[in-house]
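Module 6 notes. Inverse folding takes a fixed backbone as the condition and produces residue identities as the prediction. Think of it as a translation problem where the source language is geometry and the target language is the twenty amino acids. Below is one complete input and output pair. Work through it position by position during the lab.
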């Protein structure tokens, strides 16, 4: 039960983190398209976009940083890093088109990067138009996993209660079953005590289990031989 409980909780944690990461990434992709539409990287004065970014950070109890192609922070929902330069491996990888998602179990948060991509239509002379995705910036998002931790604590306590109940039931069943299992052997012991007090013509018969039946048959054979010797 301990192994099963650990496996279920670990599976829930991984699933919850995956779902949380997917939800946040989808929300960030929608916002990244709006950032391009409002040209937010060059003019971060849009109250609509600022409100949506704040709402996103409040919804997931996290933080959102909007970083332009020069690695400058255009918007920080915490309001403490705007105008600063962010040089990190995750941001640089995202600028090159590689998304990252990292779960920090010790501090209880998920950090991910979403590229802010603009689709440009290239019209070359004598050639067909082709679309080209250009990365204009990065959304660096951190979301809390405290609610997942709280849920896991609740599930752990519930699992502990179930384990205690099952252990108590198993102990009770073991006592009851052990008494039922011992009764046939007590019958054999009583029969042997009677034989010790004096020979009897009644054979030992305990057909409850195959084992007790074999013991009774074997002893009856010995008892019969002893009676023959005693009569002689």
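Target side of the pair, the amino acids:
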């Amino acid at each position: 039960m301990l192994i099963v409980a650990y496996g279920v909780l670990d599976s829930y944690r991984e699933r919850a983190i995956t779902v949380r990461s997917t939800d946040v990434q989808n929300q960030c992709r929608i916002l990244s398209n709006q950032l391009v539409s409002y040209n937010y990287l060059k003019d971060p004065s849009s109250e609509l976009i600022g409100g949506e970014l704040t709402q996103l950070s409040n919804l997931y109890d996290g933080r959102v940083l909007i970083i332009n192609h020069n690695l400058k922070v255009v918007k920080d929902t915490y309001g403490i890093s705007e105008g600063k330069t962010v040089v990190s491996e995750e941001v640089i990888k995202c600028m090159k088109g590689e998304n990252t998602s990292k779960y920090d179990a010790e501090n209880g948060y998920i950090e991910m990067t979403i590229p802010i991509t603009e689709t440009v239509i290239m019209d070359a002379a004598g050639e067909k138009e082709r679309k080209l995705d250009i990365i204009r910036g990065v959304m660096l998002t951190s979301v809390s996993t405290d609610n997942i931790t709280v849920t896991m604590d609740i599930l752990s306590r519930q699992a502990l209660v179930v384990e205690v109940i099952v252990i108590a039931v198993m102990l009770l069943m073991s006592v009851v079953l052990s008494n039922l299992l011992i009764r046939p052997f007590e019958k054999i012991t009583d029969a042997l005590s009677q034989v010790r007090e004096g020979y009897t013509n009644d054979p030992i018969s305990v057909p409850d289990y195959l084992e007790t039946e074999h013991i009774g048959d074997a002893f009856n054979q010995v008892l019969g031989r002893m009676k023959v010797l005693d009569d002689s």
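Reference fact for the lab report: The chain has five helices and five strands.
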